[in-house]
């Protein structure tokens, strides 16, 4: 795989409950801290509307990353994941290219087809065509980023001698990673994406899916050595494993809606002291995880930075 030593990313908490609030500026400050502490990447969640049972306010993902780009120098900036069918691909190509220049080539575009039908209805996008639209939009994005002149039509998008400049700094273009659980999604990302974004996968489940993805990559005539991945998991550092585990479980129940039909599980989380973390991270690394993206489990949003600092100081130096 592209790297042999596991890297660490941080999921910024850009969504919250209706009873809470976290400011965009505080998210930027956390990203600045993460870069200073040695994290390889920061990730933001993406929705325009969120909440099938309860409303979850959410700050717009690319706006947050644009701000983070202005105050950092090295940390990679990623969406985990952007609901691609809801975006105009021409407008998105321009935005991502501009962020790539602003960040000096640090953007990773994580995408998915989406799952929240009410969000699609509000945006006037056919929910039942979301997979087809995702594939179409990826094609348009890459063409705009890499070709000097585009001709052709994709549904209602008509290109007649179209040129988008400036091209992104990253060559041939920014990487597109794809999230998802199902076999169909894994086949799609094996054909179209530069990486896989998994959520709440235990090490053994990750290893099984990752091996299947790499086999699909070979089947499509692509190089598996160029395929990237990450696993997003909740974490809670504490003096006792029991107390930390309870906080982690309560946090996931409050903030996360894990599909019952997927392999995503709260049991993917890491809780306890530094030794507990080192053992768990070793299992993830042996399973093939290249970047472990942590989501700090907290009892109050004001605790996030404390958890980030503890992880960086007590765990990362030993990896």
From TrEMBL:
Task: Write out the GO biological process terms.
Answer: alkanesulfonate catabolic process
Record bears the keyword Thylakoid: no
Task: Give the transmembrane region(s).
Answer: none
All residue ranges annotated as the Luciferase-like domain in the record: 20-293
Q: Does the keyword Nuclease apply?
A: no
The record's keywords, sorted A to Z, are: Flavoprotein, FMN, Monooxygenase, Oxidoreductase
**Can you provide one Gene Ontology molecular function annotated for this UniProt record?**
alkanesulfonate monooxygenase activity
Recorded hits in NCBIfam families, A to Z, give: F420_Rv2161c
- Tell me the protein's name: Luciferase-like domain-containing protein
Source organism (scientific name)? Candidatus Marsarchaeota G1 archaeon BE_D
């Amino acid at each position: 795989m592209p790297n042999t030593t596991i890297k660490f990313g941080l999921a910024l908490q850009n969504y919250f409950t209706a009873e809470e609030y976290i400011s965009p500026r505080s998210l930027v400050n956390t990203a600045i801290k993460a870069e200073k502490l040695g994290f390889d990447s920061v990730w933001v969640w993406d929705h325009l509307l969120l909440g099938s049972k309860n409303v979850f306010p959410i700050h717009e993902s690319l706006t947050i990353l644009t701000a983070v780009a202005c105050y950092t120098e090295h940390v990679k900036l990623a969406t985990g994941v952007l609901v691609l069918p809801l975006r105009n691909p021409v407008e998105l190509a321009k935005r991502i290219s501009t962020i790539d220049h602003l960040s000096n080539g640090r953007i990773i575009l994580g995408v998915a087809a989406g799952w929240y039908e009410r969000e699609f209805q509000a945006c006037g996008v056919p929910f039942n065509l979301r997979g087809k639209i995702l594939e179409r939009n990826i094609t348009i994005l890459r063409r705009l980023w890499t070709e000097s002149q585009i001709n052709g039509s994709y549904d209602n998008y008509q290109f007649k001698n179209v040129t988008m400049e400036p091209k992104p700094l990253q060559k041939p273009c920014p990487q597109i990673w794809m999230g998802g659980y199902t076999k169909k999604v894994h086949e799609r990302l094996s054909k179209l994406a530069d990486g896989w974004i998994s959520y709440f996968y235990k090490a053994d489940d990750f290893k099984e899916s990752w091996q299947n993805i790499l086999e699909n990559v070979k089947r499509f005539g692509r190089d598996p050595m160029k395929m990237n991945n990450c696993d997003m998991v909740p974490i809670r550092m504490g003096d006792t494993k029991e107390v930390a585990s309870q906080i982690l479980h309560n946090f996931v129940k409050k903030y996360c809606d894990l599909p019952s039909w997927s392999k995503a599980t709260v049991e993917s989380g890491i809780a306890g002291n530094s030794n507990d973390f080192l053992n768990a991270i070793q299992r993830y690394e042996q399973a093939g995880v290249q970047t472990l993206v942590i989501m700090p489990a907290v009892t109050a949003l004001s605790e996030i930075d404390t958890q980030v600092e503890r992880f960086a100081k007590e765990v990362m130096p030993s990896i």
